[in-house]
Amino acid sequence: MGDNLIDKRAYAFALRIVKAYKFLCRDKGEYALSKQLLRSGTAIGALMREAKFAQSRADFINKTSVALKEANETLYWIELLHDSGYFDDDAYSSIHGEAHEITSILVSIVKTTKANSMKYANDGFVREDYFPDY
Prior knowledge:
The protein is 75% helix and 0% strand. By secondary structure, it is mostly helical. The two termini are 12 Å apart.
């Protein structure tokens, strides 16, 4: 796992999503919505992991933008699961709050990177701080 905030948060969130998926299947007998939650909620961290090795600034923006879309979709599934009675208020507040914070971080990353792209247009973009220590 990387050393930056979004990597840690997205990975920890993915683990929460896996646990929520297991709970929904085992205890609530819910399989359709929970599978959607699992897919979108775990994709966020995977996309940010991919973004570490982006081939260009545009590729980085694309991957982080898709991660943002997945985070927003995850919020939808969390809200739907709550409103349909599968998540109680406490579980909803906790997991929705984390999803919302991750979404906000991703919005900031995308906006900042796009703004920096306008200032420093170059095709050879690779962020050195995104490479893990080997």
